[in-house]
Amino acid sequence: METQIAKLIDGKALAEKIQQELSATITELQPQIGRPPGLAVLMVGDNPASAAYVRGKERACAKVGIASFGKHFPTETTQTELEEVIAALNQDERVDGILVQLPLPDHLDAVTLLHQIDPDKDVDGLHPINLGRLVRGEPGLRSCTPFGVMRLLQEYEISLEGKQAVVVGRSILVGKPMALMLLEANATITIAHKSSHSLENIIKNADILITAVGRPGLITAEMVKPGAVVVDVGISRVTDANGNNRLVGDVDFDSVKRVAEFLTPVPGGVGPMTVTMLLQNTVTSYSQRSKI
Ligand SMILES: NC(=O)C1=CN([C@@H]2O[C@H](COP(=O)(O)OP(=O)(O)OC[C@H]3O[C@@H](n4cnc5c(N)ncnc54)[C@H](OP(=O)(O)O)[C@@H]3O)[C@@H](O)[C@H]2O)C=CC1
Ligand SMILES: Nc1nc(=O)c2c([nH]1)NC[C@@H]1CN(c3ccc(C(=O)N[C@@H](CCC(=O)O)C(=O)O)cc3)C=[N+]21
């Protein structure tokens, strides 16, 4: 007995629509600015998942007309070498966005590197200035994944005003900025993490549940309030019963789809929006920088 109640939130479709709009914007701006927008993605080492994401980002850039200035460095690259690369990209007029793909090898200090990116080129929204702007509710470059989630909720006309929102996970990349954006939209927020007691009790009153952990099956139907909106940011690679490799989120999709009102799939939900918001941030930076 499979009764699906949940409407699926189609991140892939919205991502394609926004990418077409970005492409049109670039076509319009480029003759005035005299160059295409530019994005530099820095990747260190050979983490296969990171390599796949970076390829996806570069493919999306090519599709909308953003020039890639990506660089791939060997694992043993030093902190100083990377700092010099970032300093050069900060000065490079053709580059509107700089992203350091995380995680970095252990000998590198990611925080120090992120602080060195020109905040106006910080298309990942991870520089303290842009995070501070988010805390203050001021305009600024926003973290791509939570920004993409907000855009999805807006597209599906899901109202946040006064709603109980629970965010599971508190990373600087996803959980924390996610909670701040929901707060900015007047939701009442709760943030859960590893030390939280009784996740079930925290989640059970959530009208909006956003999970960004990376643990398959963490969220089951019994935990979810009937009629809730469930957004699954988690991505894990698992081998299924047939020996096939596939991507899954934190949500037990087959059970939760019977209780939630809206649900994002993995893949095809939040992931494509993350990439699209990176392109969006790059175009925002492009038009803002060229007005100076
Ligand atoms: N779809 C997309 O576009 C993106 C997906 N991701 C995916 O999202 C997931 C999270 O990424 P990221 O935030 O970078 O990961 P991190 O590992 O940095 O953070 C994971 C968070 O989950 C919390 N956590 C771990 N176990 C539990 C638990 N049992 N109960 C409650 N909370 C728990 C941790 O708590 P604590 O802080 O206490 O340790 C931490 O805050 C990953 O699967 C990642 O691959 C990431 C970026 C983009
Ligand atoms: N500085 C930094 N910024 C990031 O934004 C960042 C990062 N580092 N490190 C790793 C995580 C992960 N991440 C994803 C991007 C796209 C998909 C995505 O497009 N996923 C597709 C599936 C892609 C596939 O099939 O492999 C989907 O969910 O449909 C997923 C995850 C960005 N991250």
Automatic annotation (TrEMBL):
<keyword id="KW-0560">Oxidoreductase</keyword>
<keyword id="KW-0521">NADP</keyword>
<dbReference type="Pfam" id="PF00763">
    <property type="entry name" value="THF_DHG_CYH"/>
</dbReference>
<keyword id="KW-0028">Amino-acid biosynthesis</keyword>
<comment type="pathway">
    <text>One-carbon metabolism; tetrahydrofolate interconversion.</text>
</comment>
<comment type="subunit">
    <text>Homodimer.</text>
</comment>
<dbReference type="GO" id="GO:0009086">
    <property type="term" value="P:methionine biosynthetic process"/>
</dbReference>
<dbReference type="InterPro" id="IPR020630">
    <property type="entry name" value="THF_DH/CycHdrlase_cat_dom"/>
</dbReference>
<keyword id="KW-0368">Histidine biosynthesis</keyword>
<comment type="function">
    <text>Catalyzes the oxidation of 5,10-methylenetetrahydrofolate to 5,10-methenyltetrahydrofolate and then the hydrolysis of 5,10-methenyltetrahydrofolate to 10-formyltetrahydrofolate.</text>
</comment>
<dbReference type="GO" id="GO:0005829">
    <property type="term" value="C:cytosol"/>
</dbReference>
<dbReference type="Pfam" id="PF02882">
    <property type="entry name" value="THF_DHG_CYH_C"/>
</dbReference>
<protein>
    <recommendedName>
        <fullName>Bifunctional protein FolD</fullName>
        <ecNumber>1.5.1.5</ecNumber>
        <ecNumber>3.5.4.9</ecNumber>
    </recommendedName>
</protein>
<keyword id="KW-0511">Multifunctional enzyme</keyword>
<dbReference type="GO" id="GO:0006164">
    <property type="term" value="P:purine nucleotide biosynthetic process"/>
</dbReference>
<keyword id="KW-0658">Purine biosynthesis</keyword>
<dbReference type="InterPro" id="IPR000672">
    <property type="entry name" value="THF_DH/CycHdrlase"/>
</dbReference>
<keyword id="KW-0486">Methionine biosynthesis</keyword>
<dbReference type="GO" id="GO:0035999">
    <property type="term" value="P:tetrahydrofolate interconversion"/>
</dbReference>
<feature type="domain" description="Tetrahydrofolate dehydrogenase/cyclohydrolase NAD(P)-binding">
    <location>
        <begin position="143"/>
        <end position="288"/>
    </location>
</feature>
<dbReference type="InterPro" id="IPR020867">
    <property type="entry name" value="THF_DH/CycHdrlase_CS"/>
</dbReference>
<keyword id="KW-0554">One-carbon metabolism</keyword>
<feature type="binding site">
    <location>
        <position position="235"/>
    </location>
    <ligand>
        <name>NADP(+)</name>
    </ligand>
</feature>
<dbReference type="GO" id="GO:0004488">
    <property type="term" value="F:methylenetetrahydrofolate dehydrogenase (NADP+) activity"/>
</dbReference>
<feature type="domain" description="Tetrahydrofolate dehydrogenase/cyclohydrolase catalytic">
    <location>
        <begin position="9"/>
        <end position="124"/>
    </location>
</feature>
<dbReference type="InterPro" id="IPR046346">
    <property type="entry name" value="Aminoacid_DH-like_N_sf"/>
</dbReference>
<feature type="binding site">
    <location>
        <begin position="169"/>
        <end position="171"/>
    </location>
    <ligand>
        <name>NADP(+)</name>
    </ligand>
</feature>
<dbReference type="GO" id="GO:0004477">
    <property type="term" value="F:methenyltetrahydrofolate cyclohydrolase activity"/>
</dbReference>
<comment type="similarity">
    <text>Belongs to the tetrahydrofolate dehydrogenase/cyclohydrolase family.</text>
</comment>
<dbReference type="InterPro" id="IPR020631">
    <property type="entry name" value="THF_DH/CycHdrlase_NAD-bd_dom"/>
</dbReference>
<dbReference type="InterPro" id="IPR036291">
    <property type="entry name" value="NAD(P)-bd_dom_sf"/>
</dbReference>
<dbReference type="GO" id="GO:0000105">
    <property type="term" value="P:L-histidine biosynthetic process"/>
</dbReference>
<keyword id="KW-0378">Hydrolase</keyword>
